[in-house]
């Protein structure tokens, strides 16, 4: 499961993708990080994302939902803090609060970028020297054709 972060620039449309497009998509050339989080920590991270969409204090809004892959979840922004996120699933199974899950993100998120502090409380942290733009470039060159994925987040406002 991946929690790449927030603040991504553009949407990639059908057609050729240039390196400049990757830098527009991923404007922060952070380093890839993998770590393990408990289900309860994942839940808190997603709650933080819901908070950024409808904060009690508007000065705490960072303007974006955390980008996720390999998981699905729902948020109801009309509910109270701590109750907004539900149906968090990985591979179709609800996460368990005390189970550990391996995630991938980037070093900015690991350092608490945009208030995502829970990520720094993970275990088995491994930080690479490879930037995420370089990883995306290598993946795209190897894959040649990339298909869109279905949305994995449902937000009720």
Structure, described:
This protein is of the alpha+beta class and 157 residues long. The chain has helices at 19-25, 39-53, 107-110, 132-143, and strands spanning 2-5, 31-38, 67-69, 71-76, 85-90, 93-94, 100-106, 123-131, 153-156. 22% of the residues are buried. The model is unreliable at 2-6 (pLDDT under 50).
What is the total tally of β strands? 9
Overall SS class: alpha+beta
What is the element string, with H for helices and E for strands? Answer: EHEHEEEEEHEHE
Q: Which overall shape is indicated by the principal axes computed on the Cα atoms?
A: globular
Fraction of residues in H or I helices: 10-25%
List strands and helices in order, with pairings.
Elements: E1 2-5, H1 19-25, E2 31-38, H2 39-53, E3 67-69, E4 71-76, E5 85-90, E6 93-94, E7 100-106, H3 107-110, E8 123-131, H4 132-143, E9 153-156
Parallel strand pairs: 4-9
Antiparallel strand pairs: 1-3, 2-7, 2-8, 4-5, 5-6
Q: Summed up, what is this model?
A:
The chain is α+β, with helices and mostly antiparallel strands.
Keywords:
alpha+beta; 4 helices; 24% helix; three-stranded antiparallel β-sheet
């Amino acid at each position: 499961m991946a929690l790449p972060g927030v603040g991504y620039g553009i949407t990639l449309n059908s057609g050729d993708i240039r390196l400049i497009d990757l830098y527009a998509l991923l404007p922060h050339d952070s380093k890839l990080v993998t770590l393990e989080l408990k289900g309860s920590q994942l839940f808190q991270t997603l709650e933080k994302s819901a908070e950024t969409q409808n904060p009690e204090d508007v000065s705490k809004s960072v303007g974006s939902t955390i980008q996720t892959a390999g998981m699905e979840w729902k948020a109801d922004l009309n509910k109270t803090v701590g109750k907004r996120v539900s149906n968090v699933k990985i591979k179709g199974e609800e996460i368990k609060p005390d189970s550990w899950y391996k995630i991938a993100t980037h070093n900015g998120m690991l350092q608490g970028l945009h208030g995502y502090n829970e990520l720094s409380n993970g275990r088995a942290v491994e930080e690479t020297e490879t930037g995420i733009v370089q990883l995306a470039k290598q993946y795209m060159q190897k894959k040649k054709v990339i298909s869109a994925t279905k949305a994995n987040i449902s937000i009720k406002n």
